[in-house]
């Protein structure tokens, strides 16, 4: 019998509306799952049990009264620990904020509550989201549910693991170099980086920089689309959420996905965008997946936009963001700032005006190359692996070598994700079976400029087409094994920077 916490969010919401599932029952199921397996993976790091129970009882009473119910009514939510939650500890994974309890919700969180969502938990993240390995000195490391000694990736690793194990039906993420797409790939869930401005972020320090975005994570594409529809909106405090007066251009995006006939969709496929250091193992798995799904599409051609210069441009623009956000913290309390953040700030402080101008110019050139590629190739989407390697031990701060070749930086292994970040195209990661090591394999689907709804629709159609194939559908971790696993907190290096 399916436990309530394992039901898709869309199904749970329908059952709540039909009075066949109690919001209280769903919440208690999530809490029971957290109690059962979280010790093994450390995905959920703070709980708001009493207020969540109160909200669930209120949600149930509204159903009984026959009130009009909002889209997320009664669904428990996980909020990444980079996003502020009123009255619930928000640490950013940093000892500088270890006791920080915000007075008000971040705008996105407020929208989710207004849509009926019940904020139950905060999910783990590396310090200030720096580094695609979810570990910090406040809460410790998060383990992969398919093997807790392996990395969950990051920086939304806690959200991905909580979803994969059924602790929560929906969880938020954020993305710069793939921070929600990478953990989606490593843990077998769905992650979506929307176009800049779709999900407003009034707290982004460099308001006109689109590198960092907020976005949804879920177990299925329809669940993710529902979640996105409640995140999306307008906020004048976010310069990228620009609009025309009186026109609502984002609200509800994803609430109703267009139907897509995959046999009419043309895709390009690339193993590496010409720049990413993808290990041979992942290349083999990707080629096999492409051959398996090729018959579903009108055409799949081997092609890629010209991404030369992406590594250098992204590194510079990323460093600019870190200087803006964290340079003062490093100056004021260097002993309380971890190596990833210190390294990024140091890189940024070595830059000159000419370096920054060159990076912005290169970003513009590469963006225009992407637009030419889509126009001239006639493809609707680009398919690639989501991440360059199979999960490695979380004790490894980052892959210094891939197939024996050194990486350029601690984030070079994320090039498959940041290639799309740089140009601002919407990107979805869909779990498609497992790799040769038995870990989830994520397929990245990148759309045309602004084609968020189309990317989601392609993902939903592909997910549906593969649902009956055990080798190509979403893998599920062994919860019984996790329940009896030793606590990850007992592992050496659990509560350390590296």
Number of strands: 17
Q: What is the CATH third-level topology name?
A: Amidase signature (AS) enzymes
Q: Assign the CATH class.
A: Alpha Beta
Please count the helical segments. Answer: 14
3D shape: globular
Tell me the CATH architecture: Alpha-Beta Complex
Structure class: alpha+beta
Largest beta-sheet characterization? 11 strands, mixed
User: Low-confidence spans: pLDDT under 50, at least 5 residues?
Assistant: none
Rg over C-alpha atoms, rounded to the nearest angstrom: 21 Å
Identify the strand order in the major beta sheet.
Answer: 1-3-2-8-10-9-16-17-13-11-12
Q: What is the mean pLDDT?
A: 97
Spell out the CATH superfamily.
Amidase signature (AS) domain
Helical amount:
25-40%
Overview of this structure, please?
This protein is of the alpha+beta class. It has one domain (about 5-490): Alpha-Beta Complex (Amidase signature (AS) enzymes). The protein has 14 helices and 17 strands. An 11-stranded mixed β-sheet has the order 1-3-2-8-10-9-16-17-13-11-12, with helices on both faces. Strands 4-5 form a two-stranded antiparallel ribbon. It has a two-stranded antiparallel ribbon with strand order 6-7. α5 (about 155-165) runs parallel beside α6, α9 (about 310-330) packs across α10 and α9 crosses α11. The mean pLDDT is about 95.
Question: Notable features of this structure?
Answer:
alpha+beta; Amidase signature (AS) enzymes; eleven-stranded mixed beta sheet; 14 helices; globular
Helices and strands in order:
Blueprint: H1 9-17, H2 23-41, E1 44-47, H3 49-64, E2 76-80, H4 107-114, E3 118-123, E4 135-136, E5 140-141, E6 143-144, E7 147-151, H5 157-164, E8 170-175, H6 181-187, E9 190-193, E10 213-218, H7 221-231, E11 266-269, H8 280-293, E12 299-302, H9 310-332, H10 339-349, H11 353-377, E13 381-385, E14 401-402, E15 405-406, H12 415-423, E16 427-434, E17 440-447, H13 452-466, H14 479-483
Helix pairs in contact: 2-3, 5-6, 9-10, 9-11, 9-12
